[in-house]
Amino acid sequence: MTDKRRYRYGKRRKKQKRKNLLLLCLFIMGLAAGVLFGEKEKTGRGQDDISEYGSLSTETENGLNAETDLKTETVESLEVHFIDVGQGDSVLIKCGENAMLIDAGDNSKGTAVQLYLTKQGVSKLDYIIGTHPDADHIGGLDVIITKFDCDKVIMPEVERDTAAYRDVVMAMEYKGYKNTPPVSGETYQLGEAAFTIIAPNRDYGEDYNNASVGILLCHGENRFIFTGDAESEAEEDMLSNGIDLRADVMKAGHHGSSSSGSDSFLDAVNPRYVIISCGQGNSYGHPHAELLNSLRKRGIQVFRTDEQGSIAVTSDGKNLSFNCAPSETWRSGREEEQ
User: Fold this and answer.
1) Cys-Cys link to 109, which of 20, 85, 127, 289 (CB 3.0-4.6 A)?
2) CATH second-level architecture of 78-337?
3) What is the rounded CA–CA span in Å between residue 162 and residue 149?
4) pLDDT at position 123, please?
5) In what side-by-side order are the strands of the sheet with 249-251?
């Protein structure tokens, strides 16, 4: 190869190197641009990408970013157990780790109620309410007070010269408990639920039924009302105390007697469901046809311990579920006697 040809060849090689270097630079720039573009495509809207929980949808190796992933607020479930104690009342209310009991049936039911509470995992009670000093409501409370520690006992300031009442008083003295008289309008917390005293609203003397402690229990959007054996006179006083008595679930007053559940009271409460606690074939004819007819014409669904045993209602703060279907008999206790 001559010197002239070597010169031309070397010149071409230098041009080719410059060209290759230029192509390499363009390739690297394109690759970088592609990476950036790909990252933008991967994140979609970048910082604007918000998840359904209101947090940035960034993830760690475990799938969640502890600092940015928010959870929706949850509500502890509420359970209301209308315990079958025959001709009497007993209601267990649980919300998370908290529990309360309203009444405990008659003297023969104390141990049965104790076992029911234990089976439901209850070892301590936040509240015990003895609605009034009739034996079919407080008869079993002496056993409950003795066997379970309790933060507060609520009973009306009426006394009765009966063995059942004396046994409760002695059990409270044994545990060192003092009664907390009910004051209408006062509210107490039970976990994420709360209840307000709605009765009694005045002194009824020795009219023990109308002296019953009544409460309105609220859990999220769901409301329950309990009135013991309060009759129409006490119901009228509840309507006048300024408390909103609307409820989804109502325990029928006085075991479904015609002396309770007046039209004005049912109109104010406007329940979707009514629970009747009474004994099968009881001598009082509970529930009475008058109340059943009032409930039926209003389209209210009825549950009965005399037909269905213990009835449990669960609330998630919005919805309600039952452990059984509503009764469809609409049969009064008086019809069962015949």
Assistant:
1) 85
2) 4-Layer Sandwich (3.60)
3) 24
4) 97
5) 187-190, 193-199, 214-219, 222-226, 249-251, 273-276, 301-304
